[in-house]
Design brief:
Helices cover 53% and strands 14% of the residues. It has 377 residues and is of the alpha/beta class.
Length: 377
């Protein structure tokens, strides 16, 4: 069988049916990789360093000889590993890539082709994928933003929209962080910035397939919307991609700048939930955490919260009075969110306020969809 080198578009199409093997080192893979790709490292991190040093300081030929010494002892294991994965799928076709589509992927592709697999390699390697990922952030997507003060149940509303079949991107789920000082308490590590971008690009590409451009729409608005004179996008009802209103920074990762600008130009559907209802919800959501974790989160924002408020909050936590502790914190986050809203361009035009009696995702989704249909006509 011949080895076929394919473009990123063809690669992304074929991976829907066939397994992808990333032959970069474990360190490269663990930092960031194509979502769904399996790690099949040709070299360990240390071996990669040795080969790279030889390439720079000696010659290409010396580097290849050193690489062959490492590769030779791994050939059987690599073939058997791929064979085991493909046996589960009853498939004999594989996609292989390295960093730039160079010698590492060529070497592994040769081996797998020799054994009898049908092999495709990615032209430009992982670097080509990263170019594709960054391009996903440039599109004028038809975003509808779910806003509301802390404790409004925005995440639950987003999930309910998804359950009802609407296009949704959960930025906090991708970032593995809830977006506040309390967001990282569950203990799951956040992805690296590069991996977050890869995951986000995949989500954007996926929902873009669900919500393809409308026939006849100009190229300047090929996300499905029309660009108005004031710089905002308007979209046909029912074609929105829903996101939660977020700061550009979510824990340790950042929403890419161009995508962030698109979000800031998009209409916001602001859930106006009474303070006491939000307080009750936030206590139920975060009150189950231990005192030490809650106190640690409070201390991370003490400079912005203020000395007196910090002291009172920590005292309430120590006494087990979670409700009063969160009452102080909720007022603080309300102020922060108001400041963020005021920084939006054409605030009154872009924000649609929706009266909500309580934190009830079923009712509030219905309210949002009704408002969306009325405002986006």
């Amino acid at each position: 069988m011949a080895i076929s080198k394919i473009s990123i578009d063809e690669f992304l199409r074929l991976r829907r049916q066939h397994l992808v093997f990333d032959v970069r080192s474990p360190g490269e893979y663990n930092h960031a990789h194509i979502p769904g790709a399996l790690s099949l490292p040709l070299f360990t991190d240390e071996e990669r360093k040795v080969v790279g040093t030889a390439y720079k300081q000696q010659s290409r030929e010396d580097a290849i000889k050193i690489g062959l010494d490492y590769f030779g002892t791994k050939m059987r294991r690599m073939v058997e590993e791929v064979e085991a994965h493909l046996k589960e799928k009853n498939d004999r076709t594989v996609l292989v890539h390295c960093w730039r589509g160079g010698m590492r992927s060529a070497g592994v592709a040769w081996l797998l082709d020799l054994y009898g697999f049908k092999v495709y390699t990615l032209a430009g390697g992982y670097k080509a994928y990263r170019k594709w990922a960054r391009e996903q952030f440039e599109q004028p997507y038809p975003f509808h933003i779910i806003g509301g003060y802390t404790g409004s149940g925005k995440t639950q509303v987003l999930q309910e929209l998804k359950n009802q079949g609407h296009a949704v991107i959960d930025l906090e789920a991708l970032a593995k962080h809830r977006g506040s000082a309390f967001g990282a308490m569950e203990g799951e590590p956040q992805p690296a910035q590069e991996m977050f971008e890869n995951l986000l690009a995949e989500e954007l590409s996926g929902v873009n397939e669900v919500c393809p451009p409308l026939a006849g729409v100009s190229a300047a608005a090929d996300g499905g919307g029309t660009l108005t004179k004031d710089g905002h996008y308007t979209f046909e009802a029912g074609r929105a991609i829903w996101l939660e209103d977020e700061s550009q920074r979510i824990g340790a990762v950042n929403i890419p700048q161009t995508l962030w600008h698109t979000m800031r130009k998009s209409p916001v559907f602001f859930l106006e939930v009474p303070f006491e209802e939000r307080l009750k919800h936030i206590v139920e959501e975060y009150g189950v955490q231990g005192k030490e974790k809650l106190a640690g989160a409070v201390q991370r924002i003490q400079k912005r919260l203020g000395g007196l408020e910090t002291k009172m909050t920590l005292q309430f936590l120590e006494e087990g009075n979670i409700t009063e502790a969160f009452r102080i914190l909720l007022k603080y986050y309300d102020k922060q969110y108001t400041k963020a809203l005021d920084k939006r361009d054409d605030t009154q035009l872009a924000i649609h306020k929706i009266k909500c009696e309580a934190v009830n995702e079923a009712d509030n989704v219905q309210n949002i969809l009704t408002c969306s249909k009325q405002e986006m006509k």
